Amino acid sequence: MTTRISIFDIPLLLDLVCQDLAQGDINRCTRVCKHWHAVFYPRLWQHIRISRKYILKRFRTESMVSLLKENSSLLQSITTYYSEVFRWLGDNPPLDRREPKHGLVFNSGQKTNRENNVNSLIGGTRRDENFGVHRLSIKEENSASLSPSADTCHGQPVVFQKSHGEFATRGLFQPFSFSRLTVIQCFNHTRKQSNVEANLNHLDRLLDIVELSLNLLVLELNQFRFLDTNVDRLSTVVWNHPSLQDLTVCSRRALYHTDVRDILRHCSRLKRLKLGGYPFTRSYNVEPASEEYDYSRFAPQSSLNELDFGNLHSWQGDLLDPFFKDCGQVQRIVVPQRIEVTSFAEAIKNHMPYLTFLDLSCSKLYGIEMAALITAVPALEGFKAPVGLFVKGNTILALLCHEMTLTEIHIVGCSCLGGGHVQELLTRCPHLVSLQAASTRPRSTNRHDDIVLTVSDIELNQQPWRCKGLRSLSLMFASEETELIPKTICDRVGQLVHLEDLFLRRQSDTENLHPRAIPAPALITNTTMAPESTLIDDATSSAVETDTLEAVVKMSLGLQKLRNLEFANFECYQGRDQLLRLKKRVPKLRYVLDY
User: Fold this and answer.
1) Domain annotation covers residue 30
2) Signal peptide: which range, if any (predicted)?
């Protein structure tokens, strides 16, 4: 008989994996890895960058074992509530293609076996009860009750106490309690919102488990429908929880102003808060907009370090401005989609003296509005721009006002900027640690063009790059067909001796140059010249290829701390041929010919 195991037993199973690693039992670890990839939902492993497209055959056995070994402590802290009953031992059964992709669905026979074999507080997935919501359900029969009983571990109810078959012997396996939970991530996949009672019961049962998890650090509630009773209960649980530090509340539907207010004024003990939804005022019992709420009356000083309002559709000044008065410790903020720039900038300037990172990736602001927010930050260290045409030159000018404090800049997809702006940032920001100016995603998924750095941009501003401590760099450059990478760019990059991650994307032959990236008129080849005079003979072409190849090899070998080196969009024949030769001389190179 195949044993089914709850997903909450992951920490205990990882302990057994660590024991097998210590004993050198690679075969057992390989068996675990195989089922690990086959049954788990990809979102569970986003913390270690494993997704569904990576199947087991793309990993070597030794690599997977080392991955488990290096991340064993991290995996012990990752716990979610997805469809928790799955086949751990034996061959995996073929999944029905008619089943939803977000989890496993069990038929009546499988549910009977589950109920007979698993004596736990954690129930399975039942589409007939909650329309596909993958949830935590609590049984009332047997010894599985919320009140303390004889079956407890350190005073907490036991979740799973049955034998786990061949893999986990009775002597090695230990009972698991809610006190071991540190992360709960809940994603509601319900498409039908008519069953309000099921939604209410689900959240109530989930909050019961949160109350029992005394060591819980992270709670994520995504795509739920929050009613008044849910918000009141959630606010009370968050305020009274002894260890919760990270809260995410993203509503499927709109959030009322009063509900947002209740959540905000009960979260002063948290370290991170993320809110999402479309806040609006009820049509009845409308509260006066001028009324101010004392958010600090629950605690003398808020401990919030990070505010993420990126999924919040709009900014309500009368609602959130009073909340900002108690956020003096905030260091990072993600700006909502739509805001009143003047009031928001005043709130940042007056109430957030320690703010260092400004994330505008979700906002829909224009260049002059971004510049106003950037100027309001007293000492900006990190900036992330939205993708698209919103970022203008005045945004870069505002950033350069913080040139002595900037350490991290993310301007991927800002096609209205030119290579000259990138050159300005590299030459004027001495403490820069990370600069992301080109997307590392496949070209087919990019909706916006990246900034193109050309040789003329460097020649027009010949100042040396002052960011000698740069560790991460992604650039898109323009080069001739006979060049692998322009020697000028190789020389500049080779001077960044502390680089650890380098991503260079060559401008594709099918992509048009942005007007700002066109070389200066003096450097453009005269079009009236005879075609044969512009041709390069084979000897000259070979010399150019050898020269650029040697420059890239010198750059790659000279960066001693480089861990990841990746090239993209070298689909031309010369680029492909040179990359193949470069791969033999630089073993640590990772590249994609046609990305």
Assistant:
1) yes
2) 1-24
Contact in structure between 5 and 164 (CB atoms under 8 Å):
yes
- The number of distinct structural domains making up the chain is 1
Which pLDDT does position 188 carry in this prediction? 65
Which residues are 474's β-sheet partners?
436, 503
Both tokens assigned to 56: 């087991």
| 166 burial type by CB count under 10 A (0-12 exposed, 13-18 middle, 19+ buried) | exposed
Match 């074992």 to its residue by tokens.
65
Distance CA 526, CA 440 (A): 35
Q: What average pLDDT score do residues 327-356 get?
A: 88
Tokens standing for 71? 């991340």
Backbone CA torsion sign across 464, 466, 469, 471: negative
CB half-sphere exposure, 471, CA atoms < 13 A: 4
Residue 241 · residue 182 · CB < 8 Å: no
Is 498 a member of any domain? no
**What is the b/e burial string over 204-218, where b = at least 16 CB atoms within 10 angstroms of the residue's CB?**
ebbbbbbebbbebbb
Q: Determine, yes or no, domain membership for 306.
A: no
- DSSP track, 31-87: HHHHHHHHHS-GGGGGGGT--TT--GGGS-HHHHHHHHHHTHHHHHH----SS--EE
Against a cut of 0.70, is the pTM above it? Answer: no
* In-domain check, residue 457: no
Residues 104, 95: Cα–Cα separation, whole Å? 8
- pLDDT at site 407: 94
